Every structure is written in C-alpha cells, then in structure tokens.
Amino acid sequence: MIRRVTLGLSVLLGGSLAIGACKGKQAKADAAPEDPAARTPESSMALPVVGEPVRRGDLVLSVVTTGVVRSEAVAQIRAETNGTVQAVPVRPGSRVRQGDTILQLDPRPFDLAVREAEAALEEAEIRFRGNLVSDSIVLGPQGSEERYRNALALSGVPGAQVRLDKAKLDRERATITAPFEGVVDQVSVAAGERVSPGQDVARVVDTGRLRVEAQVLEHDLPYIRVGGEAWVSAAASGTPVRGRIAALLPLVDTAARAGRVIVAVEPGGRGTERPPLSGSSLMPGMYADVRLEATRLPDRILVPARAVIERDGRPLVFAVKRSRAQWVYIVPGRSNGVETEVLPDSATGRIPLAPGDTVLVEGHLTLTHDAPVRLVRRNE
C-alpha cells in the first residue's frame, strides 16, 4: 500500500516538473524576441559614414586652368652700411613680424661717429656765433638776412648738421629689421662677418598674402570677370583655397593663345569640397589647379557632387534620416565638379531634398536602402 502511494506521488511530482519545465521553455521562447541580448544591436551594425548638408545658394560654373603661386612680397634684404655682424637672431624658417631684428651690426663705431659729428657741430656753432660778433663790430650791430646766411655758411654749421644726421642714419641702419610680417627664407651672413653696402644678408617672404598667376585660353576670357570667385588647389595643399579674381592682364600670348589672370588668395582661405573660409597651406612657387568663376546660377538646391551615385541607371543620393541611409532619387542638373544642382521631379514638380538635409559623401558607395549608419568626421 505504501509502495503504491509512493509511486503515485512520484508520478505526480514528475508530471509537475515536466509541466513546469515546458512552461519555462515556453516563457523563454515568448521572451526571446524582446530580450536585447538575444538581438544584434544596431549600434554594432551601423557603418561609419561622412555627410554634408544640402544647401540653397548660387551654383558657380567655372573655367578650369593651371597657375603658379607667388607671394605678394618677397624682400631681398641688403646691408646699407659697412660694419661687423654682431648677432643674427633669426635663421631660415623663422617667422618674423614687421620691425623684428634680423641682423645687428656692432654699434660701437656708429656711436663714435655720432659723438664725433655732434662735437663737430658744436665747434661750427661756436664759429658761427663768433662770425656774427665780428660782423657786428665791423659793420655795425644791425645785420641783414644775407649777412646771417653768409656767417652761417662760413662757420660750417650746415655741413656739420648733415654729417651728424648721416651718422645717426648709419647707426639706425646698423640694426636691420623685417620690412613686413613673413618667414625668413634665407640668411646669408654669420656673426663676426664683415658686410658692406649692397651685400645680401637675408630674404623674407610674405606667406600670408599670396596670388596665383593663371593662364586662360582666349575663348574663355570673355567669361572671366574681375571680382569673381576662384578656387585654388595644389597637390601639397590637399584642400581648395578660396580666392578672388584680382586682375585680367591686357596682353594675350600669341603662341599659347592665352591671357593671364591674377587671383588673390584670401588670407585664411582654405576650404573643403564646398570650401568654406578657413589658413592657407599654399606656398610660393607651387603649381596649382585653378577654378575661375565664369557663370553664376542663382538660388539653386545644391548637393555635393560626390554624393550623387547611380543604381540601376538612376541617379540618387543617400539621405540620413533617423540614423538610417535612405535612397532619394533625384534629377541632377548642372554641376561644376564640386556641387550639383537638384532639379524638380518631372512628375510631381517637387525637389525631394530640402536645405539642411544631410547627404552622404563617403562610405555610401556600397550601402543598401535603409542601412543603419553612424555619422563621423572625415578624419575619423
């Protein structure tokens, strides 16, 4: 009897455990879709991409050419007096401001020359006063303007004053300073060296004010206007730099059938693919590619040219919406290689993008529609 009860309890307990296990498995199965650990987090799948905003503005169509970067000021500094170099506080590559000392000559000979000239002037003034007294005794106390000038000339005061001024000027020239802010490109003398007037001592280059001399074919010259925008880029500079067309020179080279255009590079004019103002990495002597403003199409919806790709023969861009890259088919218009205008759709008459929308310019070539993305900076 006891054995039957025990067996019955065992069966009941086993059934209860089996039912509990089944309910536990079912509960886990029901909870699985809501368990964050059971899903792959979107953040781990999001691809890093680079985006730029859509903007409304003028599309500038341009003429592309090449040119040479030059500095607005290159000063070959020469000694203006004889002397012995006492100190050269700069070296090639030093950045200097206007008035900074580049070379200092030994000041002692110049100080002595000034003192000597001052003494000679004092002697001449004494002679002048003596001549006036002598003339007063001989010719009477009342003198004329001519008597005064004669006494002054005979005393040697004017010549002594000139020699004193020259001695002071030579003393000032003993300190050679930078004529403008720039970078020292060359130093040709060393301490202890004797220099003479006209001898090269240093060269200073103004790297803050640059210009580009570019050639433009004669059939493109009518489209170029003074004051128009220009973009300058060199292999070493990396990013385009903004400038302005400063001059269109009058002579056309008959051999090259091209005219010359001067582009003034704006201080701090570095840009990006649609370059905003920001320091220039251009350097004098570089060869550069130049894009000159030729035609301006006002009030357009513009996207970066690199954002436009094709899928199945249709142009589109990837717009970022809620951390996902979504296809947006567009009707592209004219492009200057940096920006492309977006035209209204022929069916709806609407433009599917608005100023301020973010479109992808890097990391988007292999994306699929609605792919999770993460915006990063270009240098990341």
Name a few traits of the molecule.
6-stranded mixed sheet; alpha+beta; 380 residues; elongated; 22 strands; single chain; 6-stranded antiparallel beta barrel; 5 helices
Q: In summary, what is this structure?
A:
With 380 residues, this protein is α+β, with helices and mostly antiparallel strands. The protein is 25% helix and 39% strand. It has 5 helices and 22 strands.
Topology overview:
Layout: H1 2-31, H2 42-45, E1 47-53, E2 55-71, E3 74-78, E4 83-87, E5 95-96, E6 101-105, H3 108-139, H4 145-155, H5 157-173, E7 175-177, E8 182-187, E9 194-195, E10 200-205, E11 210-217, E12 229-233, E13 241-248, E14 258-270, E15 287-304, E16 309-311, E17 314-321, E18 324-329, E19 331-335, E20 339-343, E21 358-362, E22 371-375
Parallel strand pairs: 1-22
Antiparallel strand pairs: 1-21, 2-11, 2-15, 3-10, 4-6, 4-9, 5-8, 6-7, 8-10, 11-14, 12-13, 12-15, 13-14, 15-20, 16-17, 17-18, 18-22, 19-20
Structural overview:
Helices cover 25% and strands 39% of the residues. It contains five helices and 22 strands. The strands form four sheets. A six-stranded mixed β-sheet has the order 16-17-18-22-1-21. A six-stranded antiparallel beta barrel has the order 2-11-14-13-12-15. The two termini are 80 Å apart. The protein is of the alpha+beta class. The longest helix is centred in the N-terminal third of the chain and has 32 residues, at 108-139.
